[in-house]
């Protein structure tokens, strides 16, 4: 007769989680739902997805959650991201005014905002990399 071994159960569940895109995607959705609940209950003026993302970041930074446990699910969601935009395309077809001057104005705002965010992020990453190089040189001396 086999005895119940909780350690073996935890290890086997981790292996299943690491190899299942569906479970990892579900875990990411679970973090989103948890963040949504925290945001609503606490009355935070922050979207629940951001709260859930912060929770995942804290778990990753503390080492309680390994990136490999969510990598396949995150890659799958990113690969299928076009499916998330199909409803937006259908909304544009319902509102023909977006295909005229109003649509061009909105497109300009979105493109400008995207370029601004990408540029700011690039500059911030570059400055952090330069700071890391300087600190590494300082530590070597």
- The parts where pLDDT drops under 50 for at least 5 residues are none
Largest sheet: none
What structural class is derived from the secondary structure elements?
A: mainly alpha
Note the overall shape.
extended
Order of helices and strands: HHHHHH
Number of helices: 6
Distance between the termini: 63 Å
Give the strand content.
under 5%
Number of strands: 0
Return the average pLDDT rounded to an integer.
84
Our Rg estimate from Cα atoms comes to 22 Å
* Oligomeric state of the chains present here: single chain
Percentage of residues assigned to helices: over 70%
Describe the model.
This protein is mainly alpha-helical and 141 residues long. Helix content is 82%, strand content 0%. It is built from six helices and no strands. The protein has helices at 6-19, 21-42, 48-62, 68-79, 82-94, 101-140. Helix 2 packs across helix 3. The mean pLDDT is 84.
Produce the secondary structure layout.
Elements: H1 6-19, H2 21-42, H3 48-62, H4 68-79, H5 82-94, H6 101-140
From the structure above, extract its key features.
141 residues, extended, 0% strand, mainly alpha, 6 helices, single chain
Could you give a short description of this structure?
The protein is mostly helical and 141 residues long. It is built from six helices and no strands.
């Amino acid at each position: 007769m086999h005895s119940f071994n909780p350690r073996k159960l935890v290890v086997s569940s981790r292996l299943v989680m690491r190899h299942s895109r569906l479970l990892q995607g579900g875990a990411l959705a679970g973090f989103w739902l948890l963040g949504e609940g925290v945001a609503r209950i606490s009355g935070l003026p922050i979207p629940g997805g951001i709260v859930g993302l912060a929770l995942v970041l804290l778990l990753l930074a503390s080492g309680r959650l390994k990136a490999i446990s969510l990598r396949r699910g995150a890659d799958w969601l990113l690969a299928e991201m076009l499916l998330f935009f199909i409803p937006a395309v259908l909304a544009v077809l319902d509102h023909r005014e977006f295909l005229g001057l109003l649509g061009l104005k909105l497109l300009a705002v979105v493109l400008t905002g995207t370029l601004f965010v990408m540029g700011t992020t690039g500059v911030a990453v570059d400055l952090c990399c330069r700071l890391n190089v300087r600190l590494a040189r300082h530590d070597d001396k």
